[in-house]
Amino acid sequence: MSPPVRRVLAVCGAVLLLAHLVYWLPGHATRNTDGLDEPGLYEAGSRVLRHAPLYEGAAEAFYSSRAPYIYPPPLAVVVAPLAALPARAFQGVWYALVLAGFWAYAAGLVRLVGARVSVANVLGAGFLLQLVPGTAVSMSFGNADVIVWALCAWSLVPPLKNRFASGGAALAGVAGALKVFPGWSLLAKPRRDMAVGVGVAVAVCLATLAVVPVSDWIAWVRLMGQVGARGMSWHTNVSLPALLGVHGLAPMIVAVAAGIALRGRVAPEFGGGLLMALGLWLSPICWWHYLPVLLMPAASAVRLNPLRFRQAQSSLTPIP
């Protein structure tokens, strides 16, 4: 990418950041969020604080026009401290975190593409990320998606000079405990890193038992079983099982088989990003606005030839 193009993108990104801070954040911090994900997260965190059943009525609400909390308990536990705030204050803080997640995701994509994380590069990447269909929708809904995408992107970044070699796997484990799909990337990592990631995910899940009862975990597993068996026929759900009308464990078996097939044959960062996207597409629910997830394997593909990763340099270099 030529220097003039990068400068133009950086200027556009600076304008975008200003618009985020002056217009987007104040507007979303005070808007009506009924029917969006942000109130569901606030309610989930409040239930953790009140020691109330986390998934009571979730199955019925999910198939109505409401957006209940259906994610694993660790995400609700993470949100719980913020849920001690009044609802409007929580909304403002949460959307600020969503915005921070957006720019963290942009920075992670910069690293994945092989460029130096500079202000200009991140601003340019943020501008391009904002143009990708689904980004604005995910941010506006107030879901944790963009924050989790940022964790996923940084979990895929190869370590510099073998420092913190398993740090990415640990980050993938944390992200996988919050939302399941990041865990698919561990299938593409070396065995030691995969064990670290799985161990971290298990440790995070076990740690939640100090706050939420085992019954909440059982309720979540049952809820996922219901959603997997019944599917979701909303027009915004573009998952392959929903499109084909195929439900049950078969799609997940395909995802595991793909992970085994890719293991050791492609670069871990490319294969991990690809498996996350594939796992999402084969899950019972894959909203169309998850499209920005594809930027992770795409960015890795730009940096290296994924089929010849053994000859690729492990260190990241600036794009010329």
What does this structure look like?
The protein is an all-alpha fold. It has one domain (3-311). It is built from 15 helices and no strands. Helix 5 runs parallel beside helix 8, helix 8 (145-156) packs antiparallel against helix 9 (167-178) and helix 9 (167-178) crosses helix 10. Mean pLDDT is 86; it is low at 306-320.
Task: Quickly list its features.
about 325 residues; mainly alpha
Task: Kindly state the number of beta strands.
Answer: 0
List the secondary-structure elements in sequence, H or E: HHHHHHHHHHHHHHH
Radius of gyration: 19 Å
Helix/strand class: mainly alpha
Overall geometric form: globular
Question: Helices, strands, pairings?
Answer:
Layout: H1 3-30, H2 37-50, H3 58-62, H4 73-79, H5 87-113, H6 119-131, H7 135-141, H8 145-156, H9 167-178, H10 191-207, H11 214-230, H12 240-244, H13 250-262, H14 268-282, H15 295-303
Helix pairs in contact: 1-5, 1-6, 2-4, 5-6, 5-8, 5-15, 8-9, 8-14, 9-10, 13-14, 14-15
